[in-house]
Amino acid sequence: MENNVVFTNCVAEAIDRIAETIKPTKTFVVVDENTMSAALPVVSHDSATIKDAFVIMVKPGDENKNLESLSYIWQQLGDAGATRHSMLVNLGGGVVTDMGAFAAATFKRGIRFVNVPTTLLAAVDASVGGKTGINFNGLKNEIGAFKNADQVIVSSIFFNTLSATEMRSGYGEMLKHALIKGPDMLNDLMRQDVLEVGSERMLDLLKENVGVKQDIVFQDPTEKGLRKALNLGHTTGHAFESLALKRNSPIPHGYAVAYGLVVELILSVMQKGFPAETMRRIAGYIYENYRAFAITCNDYDELIGFMKHDKKNVDASEINFTLLHDVGVLALDSTASVKEIEAALDIYRDVMHLD
Amino acid sequence: MENNVVFTNCVAEAIDRIAETIKPTKTFVVVDENTMSAALPVVSHDSATIKDAFVIMVKPGDENKNLESLSYIWQQLGDAGATRHSMLVNLGGGVVTDMGAFAAATFKRGIRFVNVPTTLLAAVDASVGGKTGINFNGLKNEIGAFKNADQVIVSSIFFNTLSATEMRSGYGEMLKHALIKGPDMLNDLMRQDVLEVGSERMLDLLKENVGVKQDIVFQDPTEKGLRKALNLGHTTGHAFESLALKRNSPIPHGYAVAYGLVVELILSVMQKGFPAETMRRIAGYIYENYRAFAITCNDYDELIGFMKHDKKNVDASEINFTLLHDVGVLALDSTASVKEIEAALDIYRDVMHLD
C-alpha cells in the first residue's frame, strides 16, 4: 500500500497538485449541506480544479449515508458526463468521505478519487485504511469496499467551524491511537485541552497521531491480525452507542470510544496487569472532558447482548477485546467472560462517578 | 493474479472442495428463475454445500441486472444472517455471475464467492477478468468493481438445456478468442458445428479457449494495454447491439460480436494487410451459422454515432478498433476514419449477402 496521505494546510494547492498528476478529463466534488457553505468556498477560492468542478450535494448526517444518497451520486456523475478518466473529490466528514469514496470505487468499475476530511473525527478515523461504504438494512457500513483514495489531504483549516463536541469526539479517537503508541504521545495529548490547540500545532498532532494508524494498516491492510489493535475501546464503545441509540439520545462516536476505553482499560487492569494508577489517571481525564455515559446494573444484560452481536465476534459465546498490558503494549485477541465484563462495568460506574 | 479457474464436469465435487478450503460459516446461492429449475437441482443432488445453502432467486434477463435486484440480494444476505465469513455461489449466466459477484464484493466490504457459469457465453466471456457489476441509469455495467472470484468453475454440464441461439452466441466469443490466438484454434472451431460438439469435447475446447483470455488478463489485469485485444469485434458489435435495441429487436451478444468481427476483419484487410481470402472464408462461416444483421446505407450515421459514444473512445473525433495483421497477429490501438468505416460497411453488406 502506498503512503497516500499528505498533511498540509495548503489544501487548494494540494488538490491542484494531485489533479496535475491524475489529469482527469473532468472533476466532481461531493459535499453535504454543511461543507457546501463552510468548506467549499474556502477551497474553491484558491483551487482552479475545484472552481471548475461539478458539485454534487448530499444531505448531512449518518442517517443519509444510505443507498438513496449513493444512488444520487452515481446518477449525478453519469448525467454530468463523468467518464472513467474523471476524478472525484470528497469534501466533508466521515459520511461524505465514506460514501463518496464508495461511489468512486464503483462508478464505471472505479474512478480516481481524493478525500479531504473536514472534521477532526474524519481526519483521524476515516482518512486511512481504505474503508468505504454506506449503511444498509439498519446496519452501519453493511455495504462497501476496501479501496484506497489516490490521495487523502489531512488539514486543520476546516476545524474552526466545528463545535466543541465535534472536536472532543475526534480527540477520543486520538487518545485511542496514543494508548496504542505509548506514554509520550498519550501524556502529550492529556496535557492540553483540544479546544485550545492552535491550527498549526493541531496539524503536527494529526501527522503523528494518524501515523499510528498508518503504520498498523500498512502492516495489515485486510484486517487479519494487527489491525485489531484499532478496535481498542470499540467493543464497549459500540455497545454504548447502540444503547444510546435505543434510548433515542445518540452520543458522538468519539465520546463512545472514550467511555469504551475506560471500560477496556479496567479489563486490562483485571487481566493483563495494566497499572491501576494509569487507568485511574486516564479515566479522570476522560471524565473531566467527556463526563460519563450513564448506566446502571440494569443495563448490563443489554450492553453485553450488543457486544455479542458485534461483527468481530466469530463465536458469540465469548466476547473479543483488544486490551493492553501497559500504555503502548498490546494484548490482541483477548476475551472476557460475562462475569468479568460485569465487574468491569461496576468499576467503570465507580471511577466515572455514577450512582 | 492467481489462476482461479477450474475446468471440470464434476461441478458438485468442485464446489464442495472449495468450500472445504474456504470453510464458510454459511453458504448462499444466487440463481435466476431458469437456473433455479434447470441447474440448481443437478448441483444440489451431489453437493452437501449446495444442499444446505440458502437460495436467493432473482429475475432473469439483462433488464433485471439492476440496482433493485442487487439490493434484493444484499437484503436477503443480511436477513438470512450472512457474516463476513459466509460464501456466495453464483449459479447462472452472465447476469447472475456479474451481479452476484458485485453483491459479494460489496456485502460487508467483501465476502468470498464462487462463480459457476451455466451458459456457454458466460463460461467464455464472464468467467475470467474479475468484471462485476450492474446496469444503471440506462447504461450497461455502469456500476461495478474489479474483483476476482475465489474460484470459477467452468463446465459444460448445463449446456443441454440451452437453445441453439444461446450456444451460437457463446461460440461467437469463442471465435473471437481463436482469431486472437492463431490459425490452429480458429480452424479447429470452424471445422465443426457448435450444436454437435459433445460435452467432454466442449470442456476441452473451453479450457483452450478461455485460456486465451486468461493469458491476456493475467498480463494486463486493469485494462491498460494488451487487454484491448479482447475488444476485437466489439466496437462494431456494440454498435449493432445498440441499433438492434433501438429497433426493438435485440440480438444476442455473441451474434453481435460475430457480425462485428466481419466488419473489423474487413477494416483489417483495408488497413493492415489481413489476407482478404481468410476474411472471406470467416465471413462465409459466420453467414452460414449466424446469417446477417441487416443494415442499409441509411443506418451508417447512426452506427458510427454509437461507435463514437463507446466508452473506449477517449476522444470522440476518431474511432478506436482492435484490428489484426493476420489471424493471431494483433494491431492494437488502431483507428479508422468515418470514410473507412463506411467503406467497410459497404463490403460487409456485400459479403453477408445483404441488398
Helical fraction of chain A equals 40-55%
Q: Nearest-angstrom radius of gyration of chain A?
A: 20 Å
Q: If helices are DSSP runs of H or I spanning 4 or more residues, what is the number of helices of chain A?
A: 15
Largest sheet of chain A: 6 strands, parallel
Gross geometry of chain A: globular
Strand content of chain A: 15-25%
The computed structural class of chain A is alpha/beta
The mean pLDDT of chain A is: 95
Strand/helix succession of chain A:
EHEHHHEHEHEHEEEHHHHHHHEEH
Low-confidence stretches of chain A: none
- Kindly report how far apart the N and C termini of chain A lie: 48 Å
Strand arrangement, largest sheet of chain A? 1-8-5-4-2-3
Biggest chain contact: A-B, 30 and 30 residues
**Count of DSSP strands of chain A:** 10
Quaternary arrangement of the chains shown?
homodimer
Fold and architecture overview:
Two copies of one chain form a homodimer. With 355 residues, chain A is of the alpha/beta class. Chain A has helices spanning 11-22, 33-38, 40-46, 48-51, 67-79, 94-106, 120-126, 164-181, 183-190, 199-219, 234-246, 253-272, 276-290, 300-308, 338-351; strands at residues 5-7, 27-32, 54-58, 87-92, 112-117, 131-136, 139-146, 151-154, 319-326, 329-336. In chain A, strands 1-8-5-4-2-3 form a six-stranded parallel β-sheet, with helices on both faces. In chain A, strands 6-7 form a two-stranded antiparallel sheet. In chain A, strands 9-10 form a two-stranded antiparallel sheet. Chains A and B meet through helix 5, strand 6 and strand 7 of A and helix 5, strand 6 and strand 7 of B.
